[in-house]
Amino acid sequence: MSPPANTHLAYTPPDGGWGWAVVFGAFISIGFSYAFPKAIAIFFKEIQDFFGTSYSEIAWVSSIMLATTYGGGPISSILVNRFGSRPVVIFGGLLCGIGMISAAFCTSILQLYICVGVISGFGLALNLQPSVIIIGKYFLKRRPIANGLAMAGSPVMLSTLAPLNQFLFDNFGWRGSFFILGAILLNCCVAGALFRPIGMAADPVRKQTIKQAEKTVKEQPNNSSIEMVPPKTVSLLSGTEDEEDKDCCEKFNKYLDFSLFKHRGFLIYLIGNVLMFLGFFAPIVFLAPYAKHLGIDEYSAAFLLSILAIVDMIARPITGIIANSKWVRPKIQYFFSFSIAFNGACHLLCPLATGYTGLVIYSVFFGLGFGMVCAMLFETLMDLVGAARFTSAVGLVTIVECCTILLGPPIGGTLIDTFGDYKYMFIKCGAVMVLAGTFLFIMNYYNYRMLAKEERERKATEETMKDNKHIRTETEDGNIWAKEKMQDGPEVEPLTDEKEGLKKEVNGKSEV
Amino acid sequence: MRGSGSGPGSMRLRLLLSLAALWLSDANEPGTAMTTRDINQQTRESISDYTVKGHDLSTPGSHLSTQDFNQQTEENISNLTSAMYSISIDGFSSAPVEENVTLYSPANITLLCSLTRTSTDSATVEVTWKKDNERVESSNVTINEIQNVWSTQYTLKIRDRNQMGNYACVFKSDQEVKATFHLQVPQIEGKDHHVVSYVGDSVVLVCKSLKYIPINWIWYMSNGSDQVAVNDSLMPDKYIVDEKYANITKLKILKISEKDDRSYWCQAVFKLGESKGKVSLKVLTYMTPLKPFLAIAAEVIILVAIIFLYEMYSKKKQMHAEDEKEFEQIEQLKSEDSNGVENSTTRHRKV
């Protein structure tokens, strides 16, 4: 039988079956999380007139929502580590709905900040992270495709929500629209219901190992110890540990793994991405104003964004398929760095586009680059840290990225206001992204070499310890293999504790 | 006041600067008034292009000097903004052509019509101008013919609203063809789509005139087929008009009831006339969005229930299959086991 999959999981991810339903659920969840803050901008004009505020005060609603969605990452990770994806997403969906429904009855802009920005934003945070996490639990061999498909939810939802919001606004005004949007956001609960828990209790591999253990028991009938899949290893990997032998640091690390900051791959990813996000979103925000600045009419300028969304929609699953191919998958980090640099190059060339045709071409390439980067955003992180630690990793990454994401458009805006010309903003974004791409490329080259070296060293030590039947569990980035920890009969003290542990394991449900 | 300052020499510049300084200072004393008149006379020739705005002349304390200024502007009438608008007609058989001319303030305009006719048409062409379909006889009309192109020019001094309207040049020989210029004040755009609000809520209706700043705004509401002025001073807790900026007007309606479901007009008053924009208000009750809300919430609950039920059903099936397999296993093991082996129940696993 094939050995259990890597990435610290003690079971083989199904790579299909119910996994596709999970992908669909993640599609909806991720779509709402990314598209909702942008789509809500349609109501701003009316709300601005209603409350008599300036546009920048209203735009804070979107910013607060985005900040809470990203900033709530660690809390989301902790909750998923504790309760699993499904309850968190359902709770997040309820929170979004409640936030929007209460926003329909707001009487001041501050209340809007709280209801739409904080409450709904936090609900979206509880949607985004678990959706990405559970894909890593259901897929391994086809994970890039699953990621690409799930991330395609963002442009699809944006293209659907924008006209829908306009329709709701025309017929129900902004209060009625918020009320109905609250109900629409409850659909995130449906997505959450699809996130069937998967973990040790449900996998066939464990049965196999137990059968093996049973066989060895038969061979050594006088041995009172039980050779089972050591509960310690298994429970370590699924997170339901015996808490007596852990100190508080390790206990906290169970919920949010701060030891990731010592992980080389994680640090490379973090620095590269933080740099990239400085220039990632600003061009989208300023594309339509730039087009109008060049003298293009409003509808054609809006059409540019539609072109971008359509190309984005197609690019994400295709990138997933390409990233899954056997040539790209082992070196997926290079592909990611390439797509970031490609994006940056597009921005650098944008000032050369002077007419509408030029801008259309730019939009097409921008959509392509944007889709490529987004499709692989979480896949590369999973690839670097492994699916078990991914839960904490994604939380830590999002809260750090939160700052640069929020800084990007205002910096771009300041550049435009200072120089009166859009091209400096594009040059800044392009330069930052090319720099980020190059950094990631070089550092990942170094990382791959170090990993290869460590692998060779490990194999060497294995050879020497082979006769002792000591094999350690390890992970290999990109390679699919691992071993199990087995304890030998005579070397182990009476395994009464472990028996208890195993019984608990067996009878309880260890769900992730 | 904007001086052109384009004339050569520092003399004129110094005069302009001293005039500006006097404007800024308090010009109450008669002494200063005299000085400004002198300077006005001297600088008349160098001031070529300026517009007179109503509120500029209302600064208190400079009454005397503004009156002088007014007199000067009357004499300098030929120095107001001038513009030319032309239409070309291609032969007698073409369709009537129309052009909209937007006039914000008094100006001198020249309307030019030219007709290109083929050589087969008869030689005599009668050219007339009509205002609102009434024939105009004026010394400001010139008629030319160069080869086969007949052109006519009508110079107008637009000073008040009576001069606004439709001016048409008519070319008549065997057939008749005409071109019309619509002289009008800047149009105000209302909202194409109605504004939605709820009973008990408040709403803000906005009208804008971005390029041209009106002198005043007046709001009307429809009452049956009439239009009644909205009196915000009479009902201050119902209507509030906000005029923070001169080119945007906002009507805030409080404590909305079903009776407020009607059309509202914002009227911008210009020097040469008025123009209206329409904004219609639609009032809904809270029941209206409740129905879609309940429908969607019901859909969510049903879907979640279906998913959970399906999951329980498939788990049961799986458990049955597992139980059967494990039962076989136990039988097999029991037959081979001796004492000292662990209780087989620990090998049962509940999924």
From TrEMBL, chain A:
Would the keyword Nucleus be found if you checked this record's keyword annotation? no
Q: Which domain of life is it from?
A: Eukaryota
Question: Where can this protein be found?
Answer: Basolateral cell membrane
Spell out the reaction equation it catalyses.
4-methyl-2-oxopentanoate(out) + H(+)(out) = 4-methyl-2-oxopentanoate(in) + H(+)(in); 3-methyl-2-oxobutanoate(out) + H(+)(out) = 3-methyl-2-oxobutanoate(in) + H(+)(in)
What residue ranges are annotated as transmembrane?
Answer: 17-36, 88-105, 111-133, 145-164, 176-198, 266-287, 299-322, 334-354, 360-378, 390-412, 424-446
Q: State the similarity comment.
A: Belongs to the major facilitator superfamily. Monocarboxylate porter (TC 2.A.1.13) family.
Official protein name in the record: Monocarboxylate transporter 2-like
**Species of provenance:** Gopherus evgoodei
From TrEMBL, chain B:
| Molecular-function GO term, any one | cell-cell adhesion mediator activity
User: SMART domains annotated for this entry?
Assistant: IG
Is Lipid metabolism given among the entry's keywords? no
Query: Its GO biological process terms?
Result: axon guidance; dendrite self-avoidance; homophilic cell adhesion via plasma membrane adhesion molecules
TM region positions: 292-310
Asked whether the keyword Transmembrane helix is assigned, the reply is yes
Biased composition of type Basic and acidic residues is found at 328-337
Tell me a GO cellular component: plasma membrane
Q: Which UniProt key words apply to this protein?
A: Immunoglobulin domain, Membrane, Signal, Transmembrane, Transmembrane helix
Name under which the protein is recorded: Embigin
